[in-house]
Amino acid sequence: MSLLIKKPLSMLAGETGDSEHSLKRTLGPGALVALGIGAIIGAGLFSLTGIAAANNAGPGVIYSFILAAFGCAFAGMCYSEFATMIPIAGSAYTYAYATMGELLAWIIGWDLVLEYAVGAATVSISWSSYVVSLLHDFGIELPAALIASPWQPVHLANGTTVFGVINLPAVLITSAISILLMVGIQESARVNEVMVVLKVTVVLVFIVARWGFINPANHTPMIPPNTGTFGEFGYSGIVRAAGVIFFAYIGFDAVSTAAQEAKNPQRDMPIGILGSLVVCTILYVAFAWVMTGLQPYTAFKGSAAPVAVAIAATPYLWLARLVKFAIICGYTSVILVMLLGQSRVFFSMSRDGLLPKFFSEVHPKFRTPWRSNLLFLVFVSLFSGFAPISVVGEMTSIGTLLAFVIVCAGILIMRKTQPDIKRPFRTPLVPLVPILGILANFGLMLGLGIENWLRLVIWMAIGLAIYFGYSRHHSKVRELSR
Predict the structure, then answer these.
(1) Are 372 and 360 within 8 A, CB to CB?
(2) Which candidate, 74, 87, 55, places its Cα nearest to that of 436?
């Protein structure tokens, strides 16, 4: 049978019911926006802003944030149309199954493991380093053996270098969040909302407390002249910086994985996806404006902590610890949303027969895919505790961008093949917006380097071996079509 067999929309519609085997619908528009903000605002805001300003755009990095937001908006509108048309857990995997067929759906589902599971492991390792640093500020020192993997060096205060045994804080945060997700989506959403409020509050405190210390001279010129090399300042620098800080926006697509747990997905999903993008863009632009106004953009060159450089221009040095706390909160909510997204993708793939039934079993009391969460507790914890961040840290972005490309292409296909289907939210200016989304995101993929492409190819080869060895022989869609 064809590898491009599609899952009928009628079959998808039948999975939206409120039976004991379905996920619990408890999320309103506010919770969905908070999920998006929780996934988007991480430490990238505090690090990438200074890097992009120093190397590419100068104070004009605020234009880069706006440009990157437009690129995300193209994909965000396509996600919104699919999420209202097919309000099922699974995000891009489900959309690809309905538009492009089973093989491509499997590829995107397997690809999303890179974005969510491996991404969660990466963030948990960084979360651990910030917790260790914050505890150090208060005079609390953790044993070196318990704060790093066996391949990650730890530099002690006496100048010696040792290697860790296990990154225990990373394992603990991964386990705690996985258990929270097993208990319930509503409880998880409440914890995420608290984390979002805390980190957004710190961002606002940074903006408000430092606005009066802005030196207008640091914003002149707003766009430094190009050095003669593409991407080093000038208008090309604005474009290059947009590619750098684009990754600070990654995560809004995780909102779509919760479509089956939204109270009114046809109305609330576009609000959650596009609303979180709008809120984060406003915060990003204001943050970048204040940061580049406190110090000349050249001062951030080569700094691993550009926010600390900006803080040094004001008497409020206590905010340095507050920023660390905000980063920890930011990472916590990012881990939560990534693990949530991954378990929902596997839930959908298992329900379709492409993975064992184990992954789609719903807890009788909590109505969550708890066994899927349990598996990823073990899988992600192993990466978090024992893998160096250099291995897992570069595997996330290319998977995300591939998902964006496929979703944008799916809108073009659905508008052509099923033009009359009900669409509560319609992507405007089709085919222009999806085409721009494809070009923008594939262009960013091309800039990620050959090593990331090789990792993607190897990962996909493993996934295809599983598909041809197991998944296609257990596909429920194939069984129904025989």
Answers:
(1) yes
(2) 74
pLDDT digits (tens, 9 = 90+) for 157-214: 666 777 788 889 999 999 999 998 888 777 777 887 888 888 888 888 888 888 888 9
Q: Taking the CA atoms of 437, 399, 230 and 65 in sequence, report the sign of the dihedral they define.
A: positive
- The domain at 27-475 falls in which architecture? Up-down Bundle (1.20)
Q: What is the DSSP letter of 162?
A: E
147 three-state secondary structure: strand
List CB contacts of 132: < 8 A, sequence separation 6 or more: 142, 147, 169
Cα diameter, the chain: 73
- Residue 267 in this model has a pLDDT that exceeds 80: yes
Q: What value does the mean pLDDT of the chain take?
A: 82
From CA 247, how far away is CA 250, in angstroms rounded? 5
Contact, 68 vs 246, CB < 8 A?
yes
The CA-to-CA distance between both ends of the chain, in Å, stands at 9
Residue 165 DSSP class: S
From the list 297, 355, 273, the residue with the least C-alpha distance to 62 is 297
Find the helix or strand (DSSP H, E) in which 244 lies.
helix 234-245
pLDDT at 212: 86
Minimal CA–CA distance to 273: which of 1, 77, 443, 474? 77
Report domain extents, the chain: 27-475
Bridge partners, residue 167, by sequence: 147
Question: Interior CA angle at 245 toward 242 and 246, to 5°?
Answer: 75
Locate 393 and state its tokens.
């840290």
Split at pLDDT 50, 70, 90, the class of 90 is low
